[in-house]
Request: fold
Amino acid sequence: MNEEKISESELTIPIERSIQAELLLLLGQRPSHGYELIQRLNEVDFKSGEADAATVYRNLRRMDKEGLIKSHWEVGESGPGRRLYKLTFQGEASLKVWAKYIAQQKAKLENFLQAYFQFEESLPEKKDGVNLT
Amino acid sequence: MICSQKGLRIIYAGALQQVMEKCLEHFSLQNSGLKFEMKGVGSREGAERLLSGEKYDIIALADQALFAELLVPELVGKYFVFAADQIVIAYNHSSRGSQEITQENWVDILLKPQVSFARSDHHLVPRGYRTLMVWQLAEKFYDRPGLNSTMQAACMPYSTYPKSLDLSSALFKGNVDYAFLYSSEAKQLGLPYIVLPSKINLSNPAYANFYDQASVKVESKIPGKSVIIHGNPIEFAVGLAKDSQHPELAQSFVDLLTGSEGSSILEECGLISC
Reply:
């Protein structure tokens, strides 16, 4: 997949799936296991809400199946073995789609706010919530 | 296909009963003539059985920390975190107060004089000490000083239903109104349950530092001595015995449990596959 091939339909990803974008970005920064990802996800300032363990692991498995990430068991010298996740080329491309989608949403929201502020300025002055005109 | 006339010996946490049965069913289809011996126990008891010289090929426990505390490196080499869960308050439809209990008022419902609730033995099973940790964390989370002691005093004696099956079947039969179980156990039994806030239900690694503030004293492997266990996110782990008589077969079973087949089985059984 490359950026030229991104279709309009791909740019209408439901925002509730944005946790996938967040996980892809974190895995792009460095490979991690699920436990660490949950901790990292709750520390970043772009999180969309509290990330619970079930949601994170479910999304990791889904993205693993879809080929966006790949995983293998990593056995530490001390401590337990854990499944380590890495971003794939396909995942990198998906992350680009997400970034483009989020940029579009940001532009739309900025346009909305600009229009709203113009509307707000156009309102007659109010005192204690009562319209004086 | 691996054929064996000898038996594969598996010891596992009682909370994993259904998971292990399903895994073995799948594994038997791929390994004709397989003989096996399965034993469900309390996790601490399971680890102590190995320490006392009992021989098993595979050990699956409800607390991954038990491996480091008791089994690694002498008895177990590699071990893998394969599932996660959370503590919930399970009940049945005839439980007193079940029409009004919520995530917000559960403490007040459970502490009503006519309501009974139970927990497992903290010396035998992780669910027991994790329940005590939940109460300690609830005291901080809800800012209710003395809550932990009040809960302990109001709870049925932990010796009444010490292990997994005792407690869940008591609840199922209506012998107790509420029980602190893993959410997977409640799901497997089809029992309704209250999900506790993630800051106290031991489910979320993001709160590992907060969970760590809770601690419980349990009997150690040395008679008369005790160990302090600190709160951490609930994780189940499986290990391979170093002196396994069937290392290849044991590894194949663990591969199934930690692979895509195992992942589907864990989900069917209400656990979170890691």
The radius of gyration of chain B is 19 Å. Residues 126-141 of chain B form the longest helix (16 residues).
